[in-house]
UniProtKB/TrEMBL annotation:
It catalyses: alpha-D-glucose 1-phosphate + ATP + H(+) = ADP-alpha-D-glucose + diphosphate. The gene is glgC. Residues 17-285 form the Nucleotidyl transferase domain. It comes from the Bacteria. InterPro entries: ADP-Glc_PPase, ADP_Glu_pyroP_CS, GlgC_bac, GlmU/GlgC-like_hexapep, NTP_transferase_dom, Nucleotide-diphossugar_trans, Trimer_LpxA-like_sf. Belongs to the bacterial/plant glucose-1-phosphate adenylyltransferase family. One of its GO terms (biological process) is glycogen biosynthetic process. Alpha-D-glucose 1-phosphate binds at residues 108, 173, 188-189, 206. The record marks 68, 107 as: Could play a key role in the communication between the regulatory and the substrate sites. One of its GO terms (molecular function) is glucose-1-phosphate adenylyltransferase activity. This is Glucose-1-phosphate adenylyltransferase. The lineage of its organism: Bacteria, Pseudomonadati, Pseudomonadota, Alphaproteobacteria, Hyphomicrobiales. Homotetramer. Pathway: Glycan biosynthesis; glycogen biosynthesis. Involved in the biosynthesis of ADP-glucose, a building block required for the elongation reactions to produce glycogen. Catalyzes the reaction between ATP and alpha-D-glucose 1-phosphate (G1P) to produce pyrophosphate and ADP-Glc.
């Protein structure tokens, strides 16, 4: 029986705990009504679906999501799309809003506190391992391989890490490691990041993914909660303490990233700015994109609405419904409009004589006749008036909409309403 236990996947004894309370303020108006993990991505999914799908595809059947900031859109999505896990199969799915469980005045004070406040919910499930995940990154990863490294190394904590060019790591928490990837020091946003012994021009940047034995994690959370000066954060408090007093090991993303035959390199994106968000979505229109959403061996689960197919109508020389190098979701009607290198979510209505190039359009948008849109992001439900031109005069755009450093225009319905 002991041998059987050893050979079975560790994911069976693990719980994935997703931290999804972030504001995502750098996404500007895209997070005015929703938390960053709830932001739409890729034509059908939300950002959080990637972390949850990784857990499910890795064999983890106990999932929990901690929410806080403007959580309604996120909670509604989770209830609709992730309610298929069944307790009678030893599966569970818990949505854990900040609900003042510890104190009647205390919301989640930090990432560690967002776990600590729910210890009484975690313990009855009896998971042997906890994997703590950020809910706001785009990537595909087999957590079973990280769990196995954690057990084989006898680590107190194993931290998922990206190998990034050394001087690009200044905005991350960086692991200083020895030749065996044991973490010697954890440095938050260093001006001179330590290199990796086998790749001195690269540094190991934290992905915000942590593996613990559950008992050890709860001990550390209780210890930290009793420390008055703590900010109740994994990166600032829990991890540095374990690095100093225990055994912390780095797990390189390249060892567990999931790639189809179409993906050349390990893919990980933080779509935390409007520019990064636009780029990651538009990149999906490439002939061979860096992220393969069509990989049936590692599907990205989500809430899938029952909608009719996309429809393209009219075939006159100046009025042809067409899309080239674009992703078009269901329930879209392209009526005599021309689209190039664009990503269109569910429910769009795009009228005749309009042209769109490099546009990311969130669900339920309407584009009036003869509009010309280029290099922009349209928020959910935007109604573009007839003849509107965006992307041809950046100064004119800046007076009406939000324009990023790279010239991407973000458009919301409030901005449209101000046009009069």
């Amino acid at each position: 029986m002991v041998e059987l236990k050893r050979n079975q996947p560790l994911a069976r004894d693990a719980m994935a705990y997703v931290l999804a309370g972030g504001r995502g303020s750098r996404l500007a108006e895209l997070t005015d009504r929703r938390a960053k993990p709830a932001v739409y991505f890729g034509g059908k999914t939300r950002i959080i679906d990637f972390a949850l799908s990784n857990a499910l595809n890795s064999g983890i059947r106990r999932l929990a999501v901690a929410t806080q900031y403007k959580a309604h859109s996120l909670i509604r999505h989770l209830q609709r799309g992730w309610n298929f896990l069944r307790p009678e199969r030893n599966e569970s799915f818990d949505i854990l809003p900040a609900s003042q469980r510890v104190s009647e005045t205390q919301w989640y004070e930090g990432t560690a506190d967002a776990v600590f406040q729910n210890v009484d919910i975690i313990e009855p499930y009896g998971p042997e391992y906890m994997i703590i995940l950020a809910g706001d990154h785009i990537y595909k990863m087999d957590y079973e391989l990280m769990l196995r490294q954690h057990v084989d190394a006898g680590a107190d904590v194993t931290i998922g890490c990206l190998e990034v060019p050394r001087m690009e790591a200044t905005g991350f928490g960086v692991m200083h490691v020895d030749e065996k990837d044991n973490i010697i020091a954890f440095v938050e946003k260093p001006s001179d990041p330590p290199g990796i012994p086998d790749r001195p021009d690269y540094a190991l940047a934290s992905m915000g993914i942590y593996v613990f034995k559950t008992k050890f994690l709860i001990e550390q959370l209780r210890r930290d909660a009793a420390e008055p000066s703590s900010s109740r954060d994994f990166g600032k408090d829990i991890i540095p303490y374990i690095v100093r007093h225990g055994k912390a090991v780095a797990h390189r993303f390249t060892k567990s990233c999931v790639r189809s035959s179409m993906e050349r390199e390990a893919y990980w994106r933080d779509v935390g700015t409007v520019d990064a968000y636009w780029e990651a979505n538009i990149d999906l229109t490439d002939v061979t994109p860096e992220l393969d959403l069509y990989d049936r061996d590692w599907p990205i689960w989500t809430y899938s609405e029952l909608k009719p197919p996309a429809k393209f109508v009219h075939d006159d020389e100046s009025r042809r419904g067409m899309a080239v190098s674009s992703l078009i979701a269901g329930d879209c009607i392209i009526s005599g409009a021309s689209l190039r290198r664009s990503l269109i979510f569910t429910g769009a209505r795009i009228s005749s004589y309009s042209s769109l190039e490099e546009v990311v359009m969130l669900p339920d948008c309407v584009v009036g006749r003869s509009a010309r849109l280029r290099r922009c992001v349209l928020d959910h439900g935007v109604i573009v008036p007839e003849g509107l031109v965006v992307g041809e005069d950046i100064e004119h755009d800046r007076a009406r909409f939000r324009v990023t450093e790279k010239g991407i225009c973000l458009i919301t319905q409030t901005m449209i309403d101000r046009l009069g």
